[in-house]
Amino acid sequence: MSQIFDPVPQSCNGCFLCCYVNATSKIQIVRITNVPSWYFERVVFPGQRLLFETMPDSLLEIHTGMMASAILSDTIPCDRLRIEMDLEHSYEISEIETDERLEPNNPLVPSLFATAE
How do residues 66-77 score in pLDDT, each as one tens digit? Predict the structure, then answer.
């Protein structure tokens, strides 16, 4: 997985993919601060999932937004957020052809071309 901003250092051995979900009703700021020469910080909105790549032993700090401030509310070892990528059972486009999916009369995707009457 590529991260456009602040990619994982190239010297990373054993990097893995993680998923964090903001299950609160507040905006959160997540940071990884214990990795030298790397800065990772993202805003995660309520209900949003964040996928990111990191290295072993990294810690994800969760800062919960309050009025004009943010409080460190949790620190999670990233190995607890690790997700396994099962390439053998990856999702593929079904047998519907791409051109058929984009046709206005296709009942499988009626909302794509919905018009106001």
Answer: 777 788 999 999
For residue 38, give the nearest of 14, 21, 59 by alpha carbon.
59
- Length of the chain as a residue count: 117
As beta bridge partners, residue 49 has: 21
CB atoms within 10 A of CB 64: 16
pLDDT of 87 higher than 80: no
Do residues 40 and 49 lie in contact, with contact meaning Cβ atoms separated by under 8 Å? no
Read off φ and ψ for residue 9, nearest 5 degrees. Answer: -55, 140
Cβ contacts of 27 within 8 Å, gap of 6 or more: 43, 44, 45, 46, 64, 65
φ, ψ of residue 31 in degrees (nearest 5): -140, 150
pTM of the model: 0.63
Query: CA-CA distance, 114 to 77, in Å (whole number)?
Result: 45
Taking the chain, what is the end-to-end CA distance rounded to the nearest angstrom? 43
Residue 106: HSE in the Cβ half-sphere, 13 Å Cα cutoff: 14
